[in-house]
Amino acid sequence: MSKQPELKHAAVKILKAELPWSLLAVAWLPEGEALAAREALRALMPQFSFASCVPFSSPAPVDAPPDATRTGLLFRAAADYAPDPALLSRIERWLGLAGDEALQYADPKKGQRRTMKLVRTGSEARLDGFLLAGDTSAEAWIKTLLQDSLPAQSYGRLLLVPGSKAPVEVADAAKQRGRQVCTCFNVTDIAISGCLADCRGSDDSRLAALQASLKCGTNCGSCIPELKRLVRATAATAAAA
Asked: Could you read off the pLDDT of 186-196 as tens digits, one per residue?
């Protein structure tokens, strides 16, 4: 009886890709323009080593009409080196960030670029879109400033300052609002817990009521495991009370 050859399995190790240059561009767009902008940005994605383009939503500002619809696009990319500035200009144009009203800083030698677009209504100003290229560490507080429509008129050119440290006003507002759970509809854990406090029934029925009320977990679905965890947690808290 012949001996079968011994099979050896080689170990496969997956390493995290290290792409030193990164880009984040986010903007609110009129509903009729968002789809065309998304398709145009997707066509630019092959020019980067990594890229993604996703829509997002958020409740309208308190001073907006009740039926106001806000649609946002988030374009993220990474590469081994900074691309041609003309490519960044194309991204800015599709996101409505081009124009004399936009604030901009650029350092081509370091591959850095920051663009901010403020929209003014009377004495108020809000961030309508931004692009961070090269150094995207300011994402945490600038993204909050845009998604939550926080007043931005006092920041001015400070919006162009790099770094992850947020102005106190933005940090405090973000802390009071809570941790974002649903990115698609910008729903936080505090809003979810408040809604679940008024929901009754089984875990499934409470989850359904939560989704019907806040829309969280009804688009991409990536936050559903966290929503289920919060549903169970609030049920346990209520039972212990």
From this structure: 777 888 888 88
Q: Residue 193 contacts by C-beta under 8 Å, 6 or more apart in sequence?
A: 230, 234
Mean pLDDT to the nearest integer, 11-27: 75
CA distance 60 to 41: 24
The reply to whether 236 and 159 lie within a common domain is no
Where in the chain does DSSP place strands (E)? 21-29, 50-57, 71-79, 102-107, 112-121, 124-133, 180-182, 187-188
pTM greater than the 0.70 cutoff = no
**What are the φ and ψ backbone dihedral angles of 155, each rounded to 5 degrees?**
-85, -40
CATH of the domain at 190: 1.10.10
Do residues 230 and 115 share a domain? no
Q: Are residues 110 and 213 in the same domain?
A: no
pLDDT digits (tens, 9 = 90+) for 203-221: 899 999 989 888 888 888 8
| Of 102, 110, 101, 39, nearest in space to 75 by CA | 39
Residue ranges making up the domain that contains 114: 21-177
| Residue 169 belongs to some domain of the structure | yes
Query: Is 182 in contact with 190 (CB distance < 8 Å)?
Result: no
> Which of these, 111, 89, 84, lies nearest to 102 by C-alpha position?
89
Written as one letter, the residue type at 32 is G
